[in-house]
């Protein structure tokens, strides 16, 4: 299931991000490049963060940035971005974030199966750690293939 949405072209590995906004921008790059989202989607995530705080930081070292379908989603998509040195999102117990799984959903239902598989992944500390320490796209895909 996840492998249908997460292909090598939507995986990015960066050593650093200057701040949470830079991390979000990096996490959306591949989806803008492949036409899955519009640049307005990034701005919508920034705005939500400023209004609600880092609600999408889902656990230690993990974030799932997303906005509303009407904020610039062209098709259901996911992207994985690894920030090797981590970045603070002002989510005390979960900082620094090293793995961002960007979600772009076209409606309220189409992404439910993907979220279920991501929840399984997020609960497996060994697999999360392996992705956070990944040195290549292939390292990430080896874990994603299990889901």
Structure commentary:
Keywords: Cytoplasm, Kinase, Phosphotransferase system, Transferase, Transport. The chain has helices spanning 2-5, 20-33, 39-52, 112-123, 125-132, 137-144, and strands at residues 11-14, 57-59, 62-63, 77-87, 97-104. The chain has 147 residues and is α/β, with parallel strands linked by helices. It has one domain: Mannitol-specific EII, Chain A (3-Layer(aba) Sandwich). The protein has a 5-stranded mixed beta sheet, with helices on both faces. It is globular.
Low-confidence stretches: none
Count, helices: 6
Percentage of residues in DSSP E strands: 15-25%
Quick one: CATH superfamily? Mannitol-specific EII, Chain A
Class of secondary structure makeup: alpha/beta
Report the C-alpha radius of gyration, rounded. Answer: 14 Å
The major beta sheet can be summarized as: 5 strands, mixed
Overall 3D form: globular
What is the tally of beta strands?
5
- The strands making up the biggest β-sheet line up spatially as 1-4-5-3-2
Helix content: 40-55%
Quick one: CATH class? Alpha Beta
CATH topology, by name, is Mannitol-specific EII, Chain A
Order of helical and strand elements: HEHHEEEEHHH
Number of domains: 1
At CATH level 2, the architecture is 3-Layer(aba) Sandwich
């Amino acid at each position: 299931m996840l492998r249908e949405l997460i292909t090598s072209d939507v995986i990015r590995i960066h050593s650093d991000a200057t701040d949470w906004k830079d991390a979000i921008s990096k996490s959306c790059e591949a989806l803008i490049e492949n036409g899955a989202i519009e640049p307005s989607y990034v701005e919508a995530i920034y705005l939500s963060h400023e209004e609600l705080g880092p609600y999408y930081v889902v656990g230690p070292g993990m974030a799932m940035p997303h906005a509303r379908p009407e904020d610039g989603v062209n098709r259901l998509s996911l992207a994985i971005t690894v920030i090797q040195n981590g970045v603070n999102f002002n989510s005390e117990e979960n900082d620094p974030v090293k793995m961002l799984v960007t979600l772009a959903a076209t409606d309220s239902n189409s992404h439910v199966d993907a979220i279920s598989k991501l929840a399984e992944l997020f609960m497996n500390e060994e697999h999360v750690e392996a992705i956070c320490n990944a040195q290549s796209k292939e390292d990430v895909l080896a874990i994603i293939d299990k889901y």
